[in-house]
Structure formats: structure tokens, C-alpha cells
Write a structure and sequence with these properties.
homodimer, 362 residues, alpha/beta, Rossmann fold, 2 domains, five-stranded parallel sheet, 15 helices, 47% helix
């Protein structure tokens, strides 16, 4: 009994952190101005030739999602680059003589490649840098300033609520720098995330418990690619599932070849590619695979192999809101992975082969 | 007997195309000046704010590899972006008022998203564009000029020799624009590719025939990421294998969790990350998985779970040559996929669910 209790306790830690994300985001919204003041020292952003968001693993995926929010709000390209790429191939990403701003994201604040990237860009390009962490850690010492998202500190090994919470915080940061033009929409995210969890949890639970599924494929383009990557990673980390992530239309250029009737494809459509959604879904179902479309409007699919998770609240359907949608869906990969792990008797709090902070001896 | 003969004939088509790549590259080298003259109309390259290479599937992967060669030779960033991303999210990748040069790669010349990307960038940014094809096709009509790599025309559905041949052609193109400074190294590629095939084919064949392997993981960073993606795609397309591609150090941030003793990891190391290679390999073998290191120098591994494919010719070991190495290794994924398909009785010439040209109704 003791063992079982201890197991329940640790299971509850991860699940509780997943369910806590709406509440954490509420607090993140409340703290927007305090953090906007820290960010003020980096203004005006037009002084930088490049704005780069960087991180490793889940932090890189959240940087990918945030980069689309930033580029839309700033009306300029903002690039997310994996920290190891930036640390080892900076000349591929930056012009000589460029003056970059680096937003360095690390939950622990101790991820080696993130620190290496910041140090190299400071040394070779005079980059300025902002550490974005949850735990604090040592990254702040390598950067010009630090923002600590301590409202989403996690005990679990894999990142769950911190993904959503820091993502919302990133939206707010650039909104504070651009005159709070999107504060109304971003301020609603906490409530909308809560609604999204309630709308989707039963559908996700059913999918997690379906042992007829052998592999998961997540498809997302643009602002949804980082989300898609993160969902696949959660399944890999927590449930040791075989899970893939592809850009939506790239999936047609080869990867779909292996699909069979034991495969589950999950699509996060974007408005720009909506005209192609029916074609894509028909090609997938023709292989025998099943499709789940996570969307904001009821589609026209009649095939029994196509299921939907629809959250059709008016705010979300507004095309201008699209860039913030990844924050509404991160829990889908998290809950799917959590329940799938639980169904297999795995403990998501101590996933195999993984450590909470990934250190690289240098 | 007729059926068997026909099957042998078609198998031989793909295999012959794979083995033909060194010879095709020799002809590509011979035609460098002729194509350099076509490219002259886009000079000087400093007139463009951005140089973008784009394509879908294998063409995107070759664009990723080529982008590192181009950025090194031009001493400026050159970005590879999937054509669907460029067509649907151009503002995420380009500043307002930018003047981009787009190199649009499509074997058939008829890939829908590539044409859409070119047309949108021309309309919204006044982009100039060069079509890079093998078959010709209609893409040239949408672009300012066209280069047809007809020495590597393929009958097979999946791209094999055209990947290597067009990649070498891309290196030569920018070399012609920068005074043929690297012509000596690039000119040796045909011979080095031939040597690389002979050095590696037995090791690859053994791996392909090993039915103890259930999943393949390819790891590559920077200039090797496109190659890694392409190897995974070949296995998926031809052999219907479960195959993944990750950035080398990103693999430590979660994805390695699922590894087990039936998994084969194939690493394409880059010089910048060599200090971390032993750490990575030790972490992988600790999971029970096996590792194959494809490299230019004999490593120090003593673990029986680590195998190597070493081509240690002096030209290849030269660090300046590194950026061209992807052209030496593309056949590895191709041969592995071909022989694995053959071992399973699959016909690589007519892979399941795939068409030679991927059209999207618009």
C-alpha cells in the first residue's frame, strides 16, 4: 500500500501541474506590467537587427510558438532557433555586424546550450540578452536581465504548465512593448485555456485509453509547428510512445507513406491552410489511419474515421486571435501523454532516461 | 515468372539511380560554367536583402543542406524554408520592404506549394526567383530563370540521385558567383561520392538486413540536419519504416526517452559538436540502443554497441570541406531504405500512398 500511495502522490503532481496551467496563466496576466518594466531596458526593439528566441526541447518548442506571436505583434520577423544551433552555427543565422537581442528560455535556468548560445552571441555580436526562466538558475548571470516565471515552478521532470504559462508571458512581454494593443485578447487566455481543457479532456482521455493506436502523428504549420512538436515530445517523454510531428502540408510529401489503420493523426489547422484541409484529411483516411482535427469551427467531415475537438468560442474564431491559439492546445499533448502513461502503469513523474535539467559537460 | 521479372526490372531502376549519383555529379561539375552564366543575371547577390531556398519534402531537405554551403561561401545567412511555410506565412520570414531572391527547388517542376511560394513572394515583395528542377515542368514559367538538372532525371517515385546531384549543383552555382574559390573541392565531389558509396555499402547492407532493428533515429545538426531528415524520409517512403530525425543535441532533451535495445541511432557528427560526441553516444548505449557513427575520423568508442562508417580521405577531413559533406552521405539513407524495402518484399519504385509529383488542388 505504501508503494501505491507514493505512486498516486507522484502521479498527482504531474496531473495537478497540467490542470494548474489556467490558474498560473491568470497570475501571469496579473504580473504583465511588472515584467513589462523589466523588458523596458531592451526598448526600442528597432535598435536590434535580429530578435532571436532560443531554448532546448520544450523551451525551444514554446519559443517557436512565441516567435509567431512576436513577429505578428512587431510586424517583423522573429526567429526561434534551437540553442545548440545558435551556439554552434551562429554565422548561419546572423549577418556579420548584426546586433541581436536574444531571449533565452530555460525552465531550470541551467540548460547548458542556452548559456553557450548567449555567451557566444554576446562575445561575437555584442548581443543583448534576456533570461526567461521558471526556477531562476544561473542563466540570469550570463544575461543582461532576467524574468522568473515563478508562478509556474514545476516539480515534474517534463515541462507541462510552464510551457503554456511562459508562452502567455512571452505574448504579454511584447504586448507591453507595443502599447498593450492585444492586452484584451491575451488577458482572456487564462479563462479560454480553462474552457479548452474542459471542452477537450473527455475526447483526449478516450484517445489515451485506446490501445488500438500504435503511433501518433501531429501536424501543424507556422504558429502550430512548435505546438505539434511539443505534443509529440510529451507522448515520447511521458508515455514512451512513438510520436511524430510534421509540418501539415509537408506530411503529403512522403511521410504519410507509412500510415496504416493503427495510426492516429492529430491536426492543428491554421487559417491559411484551411482550403487544403479536406484534401489532406481524405488522403489520410484513405490509408486507413484515423484523424482528429482540433479546431475552432465545425468541419464538414462525414467519414467515421475523422473525429473533432472543437472549441468554437467567438474570441477564438476571430482570425486576429489565431496567433495565440497554441496556448489553448498545449494541454492536449500533455493530458494525452499523462493518461496514456497512466494506462500503461508508467510514472510520468520519473520518465525513463530523463533528468529535470539537461546538463552538457563542456 | 513474368511478374518476378517485372519486379526485378523496377527494383533495378531505383537501385541504378542510387548508384548513378556519382556519375551524374561528374556531369553536374562539367556543366558548372554553363549554369553559372544563367545565374549571372541574379548578380550581385548583395542587392537582395534575403536569399531563400525553398522546396517540399526531399527538395526542402536538400535546400537545408545547400543553405549551409551557401551561407558559408557567401558569408551571410541563407535560409531554407519549407515552401508551404513561405507560401502561407511570408511575413514571419521576411521584413516588410525586403527584396528577396528565391531559389525554388522542385524535381518535377510542378510542386504546387513551391509555385505558390514563388508567386506570393513575387506579388508581395517583388522577389526575383530561379527555378531549379530536374524534369523542367511549369515552375520555370513562374520564375525569372530556370536551371534544369536533366543529367539526374529520375524514373523512380522517391528522390535519390537527384538529391545529391542538385545539391552539388547548388554548391557550384554559388561558387561560380563568388569567383570559383571552392571549385577545387567541389570538383572532387563526384569521385568522393563514389568512394563513399564503396566504403559504406557493406555496412549499410548489413544494417538493412538486420531484422532485430525496429526503429531508426538519425541525428544531425546544422549542415547535417537536412541530411538527417532526408535519411529518415527515405526509410519512411521506401521501406515503410518508423524513422525519426532530430538535431543531435536536441535529442538529449526528451526524445531519447523511448530508446530501447531494438533501436538503431545513426549519427552524422559535425566538427562544432565533436566535444560532445562521447557523452551523447554513452547516453544512447546506456539505454540499450545501438549507434552507428558516420564520420571522417576513427573515434575512441570501445562499446560493442557502437559501430562506425569511416571515410577518412584527407580532403574530407579538411574542416573547410565540412560544409560539402552532406553530398557524400545521402546515399546512406537511400541504400539503407532500398535494401530494407527489398528485404521485406516491398517495391521501392512504387511506394505505398505516394505519387511522383505532389499536386495540391488550389
Amino acid at each position: 500500500m505504501f508503494e501505491e500511495d507514493r505512486f498516486s502522490l507522484t502521479l498527482n503532481t504531474t496531473l495537478s501541474e497540467i490542470y494548474h496551467q489556467a490558474d498560473s496563466c491568470r497570475r501571469t496576466v496579473e504580473r504583465a506590467r511588472e515584467r513589462g518594466r523589466i523588458f523596458e531596458q531592451f526598448l526600442p526593439l528597432k535598435d536590434y537587427t535580429d530578435i532571436l528566441l532560443t531554448g532546448c526541447g520544450s523551451s525551444h518548442h514554446l519559443a517557436m510558438c512565441a516567435s509567431f506571436g512576436w513577429s505578428e505583434m512587431l510586424s517583423r520577423p522573429v526567429v526561434a532557433v534551437a540553442a545548440s544551433e545558435l551556439a554552434h552555427f551562429p554565422e548561419h543565422y546572423l549577418e556579420r555586424g548584426s546586433k541581436p537581442l536574444v531571449i533565452a528560455i530555460s525552465r531550470s535556468g541551467d540548460t547548458t546550450e542556452v548559456r553557450l548560445a548567449v555567451e557566444r552571441l554576446k562575445r561575437e555580436y555584442g548581443a543583448r540578452s534576456l533570461a526567461v526562466t521558471s526556477d531562476g538558475g544561473s542563466l540570469g548571470n550570463a544575461c543582461d536581465a532576467e524574468i522568473v516565471f515563478d508562478e509556474c515552478i514545476e516539480r515534474s521532470v517534463v515541462m507541462t504548465q510552464a510551457f503554456t504559462c511562459i508562452l502567455v508571458g512571452m505574448y504579454l512581454l511584447v504586448d507591453s512593448a507595443t502599447g498593450e494593443q492585444r492586452a484584451g485578447e491575451i488577458g482572456q487566455l487564462a479563462r479560454l485555456i480553462n474552457d479548452s481543457v474542459l471542452t477537450t479532456e473527455n475526447g483526449i482521455r478516450a484517445l489515451a485509453d485506446d490501445d488500438g493506436i500504435s503511433r501518433f502523428f501531429f501536424l501543424g504549420s507556422g504558429l502550430m509547428k512548435g505546438l505539434s512538436d511539443e505534443c509529440a515530445l510529451k507522448l515520447t517523454e511521458m508515455a514512451l510512445d512513438t510520436a511524430f510531428s510534421y509540418r501539415t502540408l509537408e506530411f503529403r510529401h512522403g511521410p504519410k507513406a507509412t500510415l496504416n489503420s493503427k495510426d492516429q493523426v492529430i491536426i492543428f489547422p491554421v487559417e491559411a491552410e484551411r482550403p487544403h484541409l479536406n484534401t489532406l484529411v481524405a488522403e489520410i483516411t484513405a490509408t486507413g489511419a484515423r484523424v482528429l482535427v482540433v479546431d475552432v469551427q465545425l468541419p464538414e467531415f462525414t467519414d467515421s474515421r475523422v473525429a473533432t475537438l472543437i472549441n468554437s468560442q467567438p474570441e477564438i474564431r476571430n482570425p486576429k486571435f489565431e496567433v495565440f491559439r497554441p496556448a489553448l492546445y498545449a494541454h492536449i499533448g500533455q493530458l494525452l501523454a499523462y493518461w496514456r502513461a497512466a494506462a500503461r502503469g508508467l510514472n510520468p513523474d520519473s520518465p525513463r532516461h530523463l533528468a529535470r535539467t539537461v546538463i552538457l559537460e563542456v
